[in-house]
Amino acid sequence: MYMKTSKERANVVCEVKGMVKEQKMHAGAGFLNTLKASTPLRPFLFALSTRKPRTRKGKTNPFPTIFSLPNELIAEVLARVAAISVSDLFNVVLSCKVFHRIAGDDYILRHVSLEKFPVIPWGSTEQAFFLDKCKRSGHPEALYREGVIGYFSFGKVEEGLNCLNNAAKAGHLGASYVLGVILLCVEETEEEGRQLFNHVKAERGIRESRKKLKDIVSVTWRKMVLKPKSNSCPMQEQHRRRGGWPDDSDDEVDCEACGCHLEIIFVCSLLRGIITY
């Protein structure tokens, strides 16, 4: 059709634009109706779909971890693990650099269980190195072993006595027992040795102390032996309840002098190989 005037052409253009606009509106309404009819997204899927990408720099962890604890508290946890099993401590140390760094603290080394470590680590430089670290940290059991071996096997009197003394101060009853017996054999230190013996007896540690000393003596050589003194108690025969060597009882005799003398005889005989209690 031919348009004679510009006004007629403008009217036709307006009509076409209106028709296009109306068609778009109908199409949008249909799309919205489709969205309303569809199944809504689940909450967690909606969260995933609307989550913004997180950069490494702004990454945060709302949940606390063990690394957020103070080093002192982590050291306490590792010390308790070490006191139960040294194997578990080694596994923990290998799992993390932080644990490996903290595990070298002297506080943790002083609590390591040496139950599965041999008295003398023959042919194992790793065990020898670790035991030396424990000794330098002030580990009571490591000092006790070093003191007994140093004094009786190598004749290092001063060094052995220092190790036994430090272990006894740390509360090791076996060290107090051995040190007490050594001091009881010397006139000038007899009273101090008697006090140590009474302390071990009061803690009911005589039986365990004998066993620990026997375990070390049975696998080592002896260079130093003790010379027992005579029993000065005038009623030693009456005070001694039975003959023979002390048994497993922590309260063998009531008399202090007779009790100290019996322990001296026991240790001296053990060192000479006369008894293998």
UniProtKB/TrEMBL annotation:
In Pfam terms, one family for this protein is: TPR_27
Q: Which domain of life is it from?
A: Eukaryota
Q: Which residues form the At2g35280-like TPR domain?
A: 116-217
The record's annotation in InterPro entries points to:
At1g67623-like, At2g35280_TPR_dom, F-box-like_dom_sf
User: Could you identify this protein by its name?
Assistant: At2g35280-like TPR domain-containing protein
Query: Which organism does this sequence originate in?
Result: Hibiscus sabdariffa
Recite the lineage of the species: Eukaryota, Viridiplantae, Streptophyta, Embryophyta, Tracheophyta
